[in-house]
Amino acid sequence: MNGKRQAAxGKRQAAxGKRQAAxGKRQAAxGKRQAAxGKRQAAxGKRQxx
Length: 50
Description:
The protein is mainly α. It has one helix and no strands.
């Protein structure tokens, strides 16, 4: 009986872990995008100075 309960909680934790990993990937992708736009802005800023 106790084992079943533990297995259920384990499944729940695994599901939440997958969800967190997916959100982490999404955040990493958005971070890359922001970094790329930052590089672009820096490049355009250099151009304006010259």
